[in-house]
Amino acid sequence: SYIYIRGEYSWIPDILEEAIEEAKKAGFLGKNILGTGYDLEIYVQRGAGAYICGEETALLESLEGKRGNPRLKPPFPAVKGLWESPTVVNNVETIAAVVPIINITGAEYAKIGVGRSTGTKLISACGNINKPGVYEIDMTITVEEFIYSDEYCGGIPNGKKLKACIPGGSSVPILPANLILKTINGEPRYMNYESLADGGFATGTMMGSGGFEVLDEDQCIVEHTMTLARFYAHESCGQCTPCREGTPWMYKILKNINNGEGTMADIDLLWDIQRKIEGNTICPLGDAAAWPVAAAIRHFRDEFEWHINNPEALTRNYGLANYADPIPVPAKAE
């Protein structure tokens, strides 16, 4: 077995190596574990910091000592993985859930949550909140409760209003306040897979990795989207043309708009570029780069237009506008 650690977490491998040695001394690892005749060794592999190696086949390429480029699937890793052998790739959150499942049984663990969103979920909350951190939640709570309850995020600092939220990491669609707190049908939005996805990408989003970011009324959507585009342009492995060429172009156009040098045609060009990236790459990084841009235009097109019409504005902050109330999906985003 291998534990793959991203390069940025330089202090983690030493901790894991100590834990592995403790397990060996206790007889839980190595040869003939606890006299069962079963052998297992665990190795810690340090990555070099490439975001793309979070994709399972790119991770396997990296483990084999190659450049971390995603593979075409099929074959899937369970059939042909590390060194062409059947391989199971698990996220650390999956491994963390094993102990409680064993302790109380899978059936009991599945009773936590609601619908298909069973068990607990780890949420890494950040942005304009009073209590950033990692929370293990029961997926029956509402988004509003998660943001404003003292048990979780503790509300928005200085009494500022909620402008938008990204509930599942940088790759999932951003939603304005009116759509993150309630669905398009006016029902409360819950912190689970089904509820967050209600309405599809037109009025919904995804739980994704659980990276939950809150944006208050002072945040600039254009600048925020530009920052995400810069990240994905930098992290693209360059293997697929749509992603390799499209991500830098999206960043360049967003940078121009943010700097007061954009045109109305740039908004439509951005929309066209992200559409040509989505679904046309080997791995999901292309989708991850396209979805934030699409959602920003879909829900905040008037803010993009404001930046273009007010190039001299130094604050780069459009404010809340009508985002506290339901707004129709712009025609250009259909």
Keywords:
single chain; 334 residues; alpha/beta; Rossmann fold; Ubiquitin-like (UB roll); de novo design (two linked rop proteins); 3 domains; five-stranded mixed sheet; two-stranded parallel ribbon; disordered C terminus
Structure write-up:
With 334 residues, the protein is of the alpha/beta class. It has 3 domains: 2-90, NADH-ubiquinone oxidoreductase 51kDa subunit (Rossmann fold, 3-Layer(aba) Sandwich), CATH 3.40.50.11540; 120-216, Ubiquitin-like (UB roll); 221-333, de novo design (two linked rop proteins), CATH 1.20.1440.230. Helix content is 39%, strand content 12%. It is built from 13 helices and 9 strands. It has helices at residues 12-25, 56-63, 92-96, 98-104, 106-109, 143-148, 177-181, 193-197, 200-203, 221-235, 241-258, 264-277, 285-309, and strands spanning 2-5, 43-46, 113-114, 117-118, 120-127, 133-138, 162-166, 175-176, 211-216. The strands form 3 sheets. It has a 5-stranded mixed beta sheet with strand order 6-5-9-7-8. Strands 1-2 form a two-stranded parallel ribbon. A hairpin with an 8-residue loop joins β7 (162-166) and β8. The model is unreliable at 322-334 (pLDDT under 50).
